[in-house]
Amino acid sequence: MIFIILMKRKINLVGENTLTVSLPAEFVKKQNIKKGQEVDVEEQGNDLVIHTERRHELETVRADIDEIKPVSRRYVDALYKQGVDEIEISYDRESDLNKIKEAISKEVGTFEIVKKSKGICLIKSVSELDKKEQENLLKRTFMLLQEMLSDISEAYKKKSKSKLKDAIELEKINNKLTHLLRRALNKQGNQNYKNTILLYLVIGQLEKAADELRDLCLIADLNSREVLKLLPDLKEFIDLFYKLFYNYNNQLASFFEVKGLEFNKKCKILIKKSSSLEIHYLMNFVEIIYNLSGPIISLKA
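^ thats the sequence. predicted structure below, dont judge the formating
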């Protein structure tokens, strides 16, 4: 159990413009802080956190492939998002690493196999996302959903299978970005640290939403008139979602709520008539996005 000790300190004026605060004597003694020593001061929202020592030790996890083989891909994914720096895996056959190689290729963008020797495979993060870049990549993740829907709309209008393939490729990019963003949140937090957990939730759901569009592409019947009719409304809905996140106001949130319910109702009526798997995927997509209105209100209101 961690106990947080709160101490009141007075702000002092040194010279004309410099404000200072003294460190508690017990803390100074415990941390062996000396005059002239440098400390790191980190801004976290309304708080300043003083670090007396920055720890740079790598976080390494060791595993035997025989113990994790059925879930080896998920295992590497999970540790990556958690923020682990190195994974050391013991193995017997090169084929044992196939799922792990697949994860590195498709999802865990900063992991690389850096060494293989005597039945040990060392996987290491070779770079990290700069904290300032989180916002840019998050915006790109939102825009990918818009681009996927644009490609799908073009595919149905022009009966173009190549456009479906383009949308599937965008889903692969979505995987890499959402994994990288969740890793960054676990390792660094968000610039507004109070938003870290909610953003982690939102990003995870953005990945799931892209999965629904990918699954639609994999079984798409480009002759479906029902899907063709729904896609303009869906495009409007995802554009509204983007505006809600980046230009939030309560009126927009209410309108988003109404549009989500309307689309869901349309899908249910069409599913009863045709039992279309495509419409099922579209409805799942909308439900995922619609259910993010709560976390977004918490983040933005």
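Residues 94 and 184 are 30 Å apart (CA to CA).
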